Amino acid sequence: MAEHTSSSITIKAAPADVMGVIADFDRYPEWTGEVKQAEVLEKDDQGRARQVRLVLDAGAIKDDHTLAYTWTGEHEVSWSLVKSQMLRALDGSYRLAPQDGGARTEVTYQLTVDVKIPMLGMIKRKAEKVIIDRALAGLKNRVEGGAAGSDEAARP
Is the full-model pTM beyond 0.90? Predict the structure, then answer.
């Protein structure tokens, strides 16, 4: 049975700016600690990613997988696993909530991971938490303009 993990962070930017970074998959390796490669395989009629191939290295979980994305309005995107080498499930979402008249955005990231190989539930949840915490911190840093000073953003 798949468990899920969720966390939120507030970013000093408008929801559109935050979603712009979330939707820019080609740049994920620059600001997400776990995504080593990202390739948009298919786009919808609005030019948003519909399927994305990601190479992930999250310590206990390493995989090359494809996700299908669903965009709900301007403030939510969710994804589900299409294919994977080691994952049975990788479902998640970013939900954005404008604050202070749109000057800030609360971002909630929910993630469910289930692996094909036997793994203790606490290890899976720890991997989910690592993925979420690093992704939210990286997103905040990227959107608020601090990514230029990070080691990952300094790569060519």
Answer: no
